[in-house]
Structures are given as C-alpha cells and as structure tokens.
Write a structure and sequence with these properties.
By secondary structure, the chain is α/β, with parallel strands linked by helices. It has helices spanning 16-27, 43-49, 81-89, 96-105, 124-138, 212-223, 239-244, 296-311, 316-324, 352-365, 388-395, 420-428, 445-452, 473-484; strands at residues 7-11, 31-35, 54-55, 69-72, 93-95, 114-119, 148-155, 160-163, 169-174, 178-180, 183-186, 195-198, 231-235, 251-256, 263-271, 274-281, 284-291, 334-339, 342-347, 371-375, 400-403, 438-441, 461-465. It has a ten-stranded mixed sheet, with helices on both faces. A six-stranded mixed sheet has the order 18-19-23-20-21-22, sandwiched between helices. Helix 1 runs parallel beside helix 2.
C-alpha cells in the first residue's frame, strides 16, 4: 500500500455506483471497508470477489477504528446510526460523486482526464457500457485509447462495472439522482463533461423532483457545463431533450430516426439474433450496424455511443467491431434460466418507459410466445402513482401481468402511493386489454412463485422486472420450476 493510502469506509457500499467506486479506490491502493443493510447481486458478488468486507447491519461499531474518510451513499439519510456517529465524531466525509471527481477525473495533474459522460432518464447504463467497449476495442490498435470507466451496472464484456487505466479517457455514467443527504444536486454535476451523450429526458425520481420542469432544469445545468470545444450527442425524438439543449455553446449532433437527424437510423430490423440498421451521417451513408441485442432502444443507445466515439476520433472499424461483439449489462434483458422450455428474463425496470421498451424488445425476439411481466414496484418513481397511467399502458404489452406489493409502502403517503390493485383492475377491465390477458396481485415473491408456477407452460417467456433483489425471486422461481420440470 502506498504512503498516500487511506482507510476509506463506504456507507451503502452495495449501490451500483458505490461498489464501483470501492473497486476504483482499491486499485488506487486504499484500504476499503463498507456497510449496507441488504447485500444482493450483482454488486455484492463483485465486492466479495475483491475481498472487500460488507458489514451488516449499519452500526457505530463498523466505524471502529475511525476510518480516514467516509463516503455516504445517496440513498441514506439522517437517523442512520453510522451517519450520526460520523457527524458526532467529526470523521471526514464526502459523497461518491465528489470523491470520483477528486480522485480520478481531476488526476493526473494538471488538466485531469477527459470526462465522457452519458446521461439521460433511460439507457445510460447500457450506452456507457457500449462506449467503454468501443474504446476498449479501439485500444487494440492504439493502447492510449484504453479507457477508465465507472458504470452503474456490470458490463458483461468486462465482467465488471469499473476500470482504471493510466490513459486520458474516463467514461462515466451520469446519474441525475441527488448526490447525498448533504448535497441535493444531481451526481452528474460533479463530472464536468468534455463530451456528453443525452439519451432522454422524462419525469422520473418523483421522490426528489417535483415535476418534469425540475428534471429539465437539472439537465439544462449539465448541458451548460460542456465547454465550447466539447461535443453533445443527443436523441432527436424527444422535445424535452431539445429544450434541455438550449444552453449548449458547443457542437451538438442529434441522432435518431427522423430525416433531420445528423446521425439518421433507417431500415431497423431483427434478424438471426441481431438487430440491424443503416446509419447515415450528415445525409451520407456511414455504415450498416449490427448489435446482438434486441429492441429499438438498444439500437438507439448503440447509435449514440457510435456517434460520440467517432466524434472523438475513434476509427469506424473499431466502432463496428465493438457493437457487433457487445454482450450486454447484467440485469438488462438478461436470461437467468431456461427450465422446462420456460425462459426467465431479468430486467432492471425502474420506470414505465423502461418497462415498455423491455416488453417491446421481448416481443421482437419471441413473437409467438406468451409473455409474462412480473413487476415489483420498487423504484421511487414506480412506488408512486404519478405515472400510473403510463405504467398501465406499458404493462398492456404483456399477455399476463403479475404485480407484487409496493416495496416499503409505509414510507410513501397513501395519497401519493401506487395502489397495485388499481393497476390490476385497470388491466382486467372490459375493453382495456386483449381477451387473453389477465393480471393478478400477490403480496410478495413467495406467493407469486406459488401462484404462477403451475400456470407456466413450455414456450412462455417471463420478464421479472425490479431494480432490487425482489425478495429472492430470481432463485425461488427457478427452484420451483426445476421441481416441476425435473430433468
């Protein structure tokens, strides 16, 4: 361990960004410990592979002896015993985003690394992973292009969510969620992008943003940080994105399906396990692209990554090779098991739009299968009724829908809370769904597994939608199906 190494303790270490930061800090030579209330994959697996201890539950004793620095996760608030002890004892503390900038983006001196930020309500984890893989593939010809990165998920091409190299490029997922209980601004405001991808802007995070206008204000402030020499690649199919680009003083290139897009996609299709499309740049044919992932949304993500990489000087050949060999991100349309001819899919659903695009993508891959959607309303947006109508519309794309109870519903006032029974009633109401569709409500994972296991048939596709552990359903449902369909 080098002379400048410190003992750094992360409270809430199993968060995707926090676990990634822990890995980066360990690579810097620091001694890392962390605590959380519930460790679950994939980040718990990552931390254990690094021999970073996960202390459970939160306790003052986890901070003895005192660490040199404490990083406080953004999901935590006053009343947490470790936060209270840190404040009482005056132990130095900071946030994930602030420490990432201080330790990695601002170093090496004097200028620091080139910060490439991927932001947007949807698609940023996958797009960040694609951009990192493009740079990694390009580094085969030019090692100076090998990137450092931090991603809010495990990129399967790397089998990790972070990487640190002594090169200039640092690719980071820019989260619009707040930074910490003591810093209520978005995390992405700490990253000062040299170049930016903006995938989408919608109302989300209803717990911290009052309305869509507040969300747009946050993204406008991010755009305002990009220097004149920089580049913004932004989706052209959303008026909210257009509005958020107003403060830009740098080059802006739009991508999407419209005839006016600088990067225009056409002839989008799914063939032989690949999504394929043609891409024009400034009204000139640029390339035919292929991606081994389903869904228009993933083709859009890939186009954004390709456009930014090309704008930063990455050769076209490396971009095409990278996209054709891109695997995915864990918990993004991830096949967890195929048992008795029943395919179980895990997807990190957090918003009605994400649910809609996931189900659309599955329809394109499994057009004749009976499609199930099993949803745990867990994100701070899905737990609230603000987007109930959009949620109902998205779930109608499935043949069968199963809802769990709202996660930690006691924390949401009744007037603001999503009531899953209302969603089920709407899906089952006359004329609102196809005759073959039926929705049902069960309180937890155990009751869901017990209820649906006898109903599942060979050929069915089951999408399990949650941004958390869902009470172990990812192990419980395969176990029940294995018992029903012994090999």
């Amino acid at each position: 361990m080098n002379q400048s190494s410190r003992h750094i303790h992360l409270i809430g270490i199993c968060g995707t960004a926090m676990a990634s930061l822990a890995g980066l800090l360990q690579l810097q030579g620091h001694r890392i410990t962390g605590s959380d209330k519930a460790a679950y994959p994939p980040m718990s697996d990552l931390l254990r592979s690094l021999n970073i201890p996960i202390l459970e539950p939160y306790s003052e004793s986890n901070l003895s002896p005192h660490p040199d620095l404490v990083v406080i996760g953004n999901a935590l608030s006053r009343g947490n015993p470790e936060i209270e002890y840190v404040l009482d004892q005056r132990i130095p503390f900071t946030s994930m985003a602030a420490l990432l900038r201080e330790e990695f983006l601002c170093k090496p001196a004097p200028r620091g690394r080139d910060s490439l930020v991927v932001a947007g309500t949807h698609g940023k984890t996958t797009t960040t992973s694609m951009l990192a893989w493009i740079y990694q593939c390009a580094s085969a010809a030019d090692p100076a292009l090998e990137p450092s990165f931090l991603i809010g998920g495990v990129a399967e091409n790397f089998n990790t969510s972070y990487q640190l190299r002594p090169t200039r490029t640092f690719i980071v997922e820019g989260d619009e969620y707040d930074t910490a209980f003591f810093d209520k601004g978005p995390k992405f405001m700490h990253y000062f992008p040299d170049a930016l991808i903006l995938t989408s802007v919608e109302f989300d995070h209803a717990d911290i943003y009052a309305d869509l206008a507040a969300v747009k204000t946050a993204f406008k402030r991010l755009v305002n940080l990009v220097p004149r020499r920089g580049l913004i690649v932004a989706y052209d199919g959303n008026p909210n994105v257009t509005e958020c680009l107003e403060p830009a003083l740098c080059r802006v290139q739009r991508y999407g399906l419209s005839p006016s897009a600088h990067w225009r996609m056409s002839n989008l299709r799914h063939e032989n396990g690949f999504t394929r499309w043609n891409l024009d740049c400034d009204n000139t044919p640029w390339a035919g692209l292929k991606l081994p992932l389903a869904g228009e949304h993933n083709a859009l993500n890939a186009t954004a990554a390709a456009a930014l990489a090309f704008g930063q000087g990455i050769p076209k050949e490396a971009i095409l090779t990278a996209l054709a060999t891109f695997k995915s991100v864990k918990r993004r349309l991830q096949i967890r098991a195929v048992i008795g001819g029943i395919t179980l899919i895990d997807d990190f659903a957090h918003h009605p739009t994400a649910i809609r695009e996931t189900l659309r993508a599955l329809r394109s891959v499994y057009p004749t299968s009976r499609l199930w959607a099993i949803l745990e309303p867990r994100s701070n947006t899905l737990r609230r009724k603000a987007l109930e109508a959009d949620l109902i519309a998205s779930l109608r794309l499935a043949d069968r829908v199963v809802l769990a109870g709202v996660y930690q519903q006691q924390r949401i006032p009744d007037a603001e809370r999503l009531h899953p029974q209302d969603v089920v009633d709407a899906l089952n109401s006359s004329g609102s769904t196809s005759a073959s569709q039926k929705a049902e409500l069960h309180p937890d994972a155990d009751s869901i597994v017990q209820a649906i296991t006898p109903q599942l048939n060979p050929g069915d596709v089951v999408a399990i939608l949650s941004n958390g552990g869902f009470d172990g359903i990812y192990d419980k449902l395969p176990a029940a199906l294995t018992a029903r369909f012994p090999s």
